[in-house]
Write a structure and sequence with these properties.
Shape: globular
Helix content: 40-55%
Distance between the termini: 53 Å
Radius of gyration: 24 Å
Low-confidence stretches: none
Strand content: under 5%
Number of helices: 18
Order of helices and strands: HHHEEHHHEHHHHHEEHHHHHEEHH
Structural class: mainly alpha
Amino acid sequence: MRKRRVKRLILWLALIALAWFALDALVGWWYRRGPAVQVTATPAQIERGRYLVAAADCAACHTADGGAPFAGGVPLASPFGVIHGTNITPDAETGIGRYSADDFFHTIARGEARDGHQLYPAMPYVSYKTIRREDSDAIYAYLMTRPAVKQANLANGVGFPFNIRTGIHAWNLLFAGAQARPASQGRSPEWKRGEYLAETLGHCGECHSPRGWLGQVDRSRPLAGNDTLGRVAAPDITPQGLAQRGWDRDALQAYLARGLAAHAVASDEMLKVVNLSTSRLEPGDIGAIATYLLGDQPPAAVPLPAANLSGDGTPAQARYFALCAGCHGRDGQGVPHVAPALRGNSSLRDPNPHNLIVAILDGLPEHDLPGLERMQEMPGFADQLSDAQVAELSQWLRVRYGGQSAQVSVAQVKGLRESGGEH
C-alpha cells in the first residue's frame, strides 16, 4: 500500500512538472509571436536616449569586444556562473524588436522579459526600478532606431539549482524591493541629481556594495566596497572611504571624465565604465555624481602621512628597484603616459591590499583612456616572486607610498594567487 502511494505521488509530481513546462512554453510562444514594432520618435528623444544609454552604461554588458553594438554576447562573471549580456537591438527574432515601450519599461524595472521569463539579477533591474518612465522611453526610442542585428543570445553557464529561473521570483520577494540607502548625506538639487545618476542609471552599488550569500546587495553598507565579484576589487567609495584615500571633488571629476587623476588611473571594469559611460556625460552630471559620492558637506581629503623610511635597504626595496622603478620612477613619482605615480596612489592607500597584490601577481594590460591618453602594459610577477616576496613588496609599497602600516599576509597573497584561474 505504501509503495503504491509513493508511485502515485511521483506520478502527480511528474504531471504537475510537465504541465508547468507546457504552460511556460505556451506563454513564451504567445509573447514571441506578432510583428516587429516600428518606432517613431523625435530626433530630440533619440538624442536624449543616446545620452541616457551612456549614463546607464548599457554597452558594457550588451556590446561584446569586436561585436556589433548592443548585439549581446558579453560574458559576465558571477558567483553562480557566467551570464551573457543579451541582444537588445531591434531584431524581432533575437533582440527586442517586438517589445513595446511598456514591455521595455517593465523589463528593465522589474526584471521580467516580454515572454514572461525572469532575468537574472546580473541585469541591474533592482537599481533600475527607480528609473523615470520618460528616461526609459527615451532609451527605448534610441535602441529601437539602431540597426537590427540578427544574433542569437549565448547560453548562460549557471549551474543547478540557480539555473531554475522560477526561483528568482522568491529572490525578488526577498531582495528586489529593498530601497537603496544613500551612501552620503545631502539635499541639494545637485546631490539629488547625482543620487539618480549613481544609484539608478549608473547602478554603482551593484559593484561597489558588499553582497550577501544569495548575491543580494547589502543595503546596510552602500558603496562600502566589494572584493568578491571579480578579480579586481571595487573599492569603498563612501565619503569616508574616498576621503581616507585622498579623494576630493576635483579629483573625482577628473577621474570620471578622463579615467585619470593625480593619484589614480581607471583599470579593469572601471576603465570600461569611464570609456563607455562617465566620460560621455556632461560636466554638470559628472559634478553631480562627485557631489553625491562625497555629500553636500564632504569630509576633507586626508593628507598622505610622511613616508616611513625605516624599511629602506630591505630586500623589498631592492626588488622595487629591480622590477618597478624603471616605469614608476626611483621614488614612485610615476612617468606620464607610461605608468602612474605610486606616491599617494589610491590603491596603495586602500586599507584592503587586494588590488595591489593582484596587480603585482597578474600585471595590467595597456590602458586606452579617453582622448589620446595611454598607460603602457605592466607585466605580472607571479612566476618570479614567491607569496612571501609579494607580501613583502606589497607591505613596503604601502608603508612608503600609501601611509598604510597594516601587515600584508602571505595567506592573502596565496589565496589570490590560487584564485587567479577562477576569474
